Amino acid sequence: MLPWADALVPFIAAASVIFIPGLLISSAAGATGWHRWALAAPVTFTVAGVSAIAYELVGIPFTAASFGAAAAALSVVTWLVARLLRRRFTTDVAPSSQPARQRPARTMLFATAAGLIIPVVMISYRLLRGIGSPTAIAQLFDNVFHLNAVALIAASGKGSSLTLGNLTEASRGFYPAGFHDVVAVVMGLGVTDVSIALNVVSITMASLVWPISFMFLATRIFGSRAQVVIAAGLSAWLFAAFPYRLFSFGVLYPFMAGLTMLPVLIALVIEFFGRKAPRRATRPATTACIVAAAPGIALTHPSVVVAALVLATPFVVSAMARALRPGPGEDRDRLSLILGGAYVAGTIISFAVIRPPLSTAPWDPTQSPREAAGAIVLMSPGTSLIGWVLIPLAAVGLVVAIRRPGRHGAILASAAIGSILYFASAAMWHPLVRDLLVGVWYRDTERVSALFAIACLPLIVLGTLTLIDVTSRLVLRAVPRATARTGLVAAVIIVGMVIVVIGQRGALAQAGSWLSQSFGQAGAQPLLTDDERALLDEVPDFVPQDEVVVGDAATGASLTPAFSDREALTPHIFGARSDEEELLIERWRRAGVDPQVCEVIDDLKAYWALDFGTDGVLLGNERPDPYGLQRLDDAPGIAEVARVGDAVLYEAVACR
């Protein structure tokens, strides 16, 4: 197994691709401080997703070079437009620009660094340990698609979300390819192993992009104070449901990546409807930020944008309530009422319209109503173990929010929305109501568990901030000579140590076990065994570049695009197939006795087949029956070419 130290350069490549283009463009627009860093990843994903579509429409390959050219061109154009706007208007281009342009205090810089280091270390440590090696792959159903999609985009230069589909010509159609486009760009920088590229990008998104995004949201809700960013950093890694579980279920790389950027959209909506007049004056700039960030998130996973709209709604409604009841000396903000009403209406329409076909959403409830309610109360969605540190933090936050609804009512409402969605997915059996509430997220409890965690995190931060404040007062009372700053630092250290120590117990330990099992560290390798992967490495020695390999995708035998640089007849387990492809799946083994089979083999150049047995990631009735790929060892006209253990490569010599 390759040690993680050998993946340092790929990690640097991943971080550079994710952050540098977005930083250049947002800086060119005049963004500073939190805006610059929080917008970096979403803007990069927008450049990747949109440029991949545009390049395919005009016939230009999507590569690391063409992606870089698009980012550079957009940076120049953005700078010119921003400069022109600054000359014409007095309002700066960057939201909250006047405070942002002030030099950050040393205390705030230190707090930001400390607040960021905590989740980066905690999340990355658990992911690195659970995954085990840079070359390890998630032994899960969806990874057949993700591995092959990235490899095919990197090899072909075609990464358009409008045509990616299920990776074959017969299945061309929409599939959000933003995440895969970014990973393909990382491969274009020299990270030739698709498993390494996929791991370093996904880990960077979870351990770095997510904390930055959430800390940005926390500062929009609670203000840009040192204790806020530290409290956000202390809270960001505590839920097993996110980000860890999405690495061990599915595997849901695009959804996970989209959720790491979700707080940015919520934060921008809060900023747009901010209560202060200077914020309202920067609404055009905030709108520009939303326009720059939303496409990248939507092209990573559209349901994440719907989630952002829904979870931000309480903050919009709160702003509308303030607009209806202006303070002394203030006029009623009719514009906020109009915009807020439009937002709520748009959210309802989007929630009703943007959803996948329910035929692709097979998940049933997983808990009884009592169990689901218990999971909500115990802050343990999707797991049988309790997040011990989350319970007191949530309880304190809940009490404070109830006592001060005018200030914290939106936080409470957001957590309530997450709770309702979780209960609907986990325990509600009424099909129409369940489909209405959680059909956007495939009715899947694991996905909605992640949304529940994100929806409740502001409440957790509120509880953490309250405990820091109480502890600070206790320190000052115990040490009369201590300054307010000393008391605050001591309180942060005390509360932080308690959270870090207790937070390791319970559900997070189970999350680590999930990861180890899903990435094959616990012995089970249902998708791709070591022998099968070794044979895939040998395939290029036998199969010409322009010929096709047939295999049962559920066993990993279709991963030749990812690991052999050879085309697979069925690069995903499901998806539309042409009549010729269906014929070979059903009858390839009859090449020596059925002339029609040889005609199709010649037409598709599908002279090769991989037999990885019958054990795979799908069993029983869920799995397509690849009858034509069974019992190849005694099929006439079929010859064994290479073998590693029980994994075998065959050739249809009868068709040559």
List strands and helices in order, with pairings.
Layout (H helix, E strand, L loop, with lengths): L7 H21 L4 H26 L5 H25 L8 H5 L4 H26 L11 H14 L21 H11 L5 H29 L3 H10 L9 H4 L4 H20 L4 H5 L1 H16 L3 H23 L9 H20 L15 H9 L12 H14 L1 H23 L3 H8 L6 H34 L5 H20 L3 H12 L11 H9 L9 E4 L8 H4 L3 E2 L10 H9 L7 H10 L3 E4 L27 E6 L2 E5 L5
Parallel strand pairs: 1-2, 1-3
Antiparallel strand pairs: 3-5, 4-5
Descriptive report:
With 656 residues, the chain is mainly alpha-helical. The protein folds into three domains: 300 residues, no CATH class; 165 residues, no CATH class; 126 residues, no CATH class. 62% of the residues lie in helices and 3% in strands. It has 26 helices and five strands. A five-stranded mixed beta sheet has the order 2-1-3-5-4. Helix 1 runs parallel beside helix 3 and helix 18 crosses helix 19.
Q: Give the domain tally.
A: 3
Helix/sheet category: mainly alpha
* Count of discrete alpha- or pi-helical segments spanning 4 or more residues: 26
In spatial order, strands of the major sheet run: 2-1-3-5-4
- Residue stretches low in confidence (pLDDT < 50, at least 5 long) are 91-102
The Rg value, from CA coordinates, equals 26 Å
What is the average per-residue confidence, as pLDDT, rounded to a whole number?
92
Note the beta-strand portion: under 5%
How far apart lie the N and C ends?
39 Å
Principal-axes shape call: globular
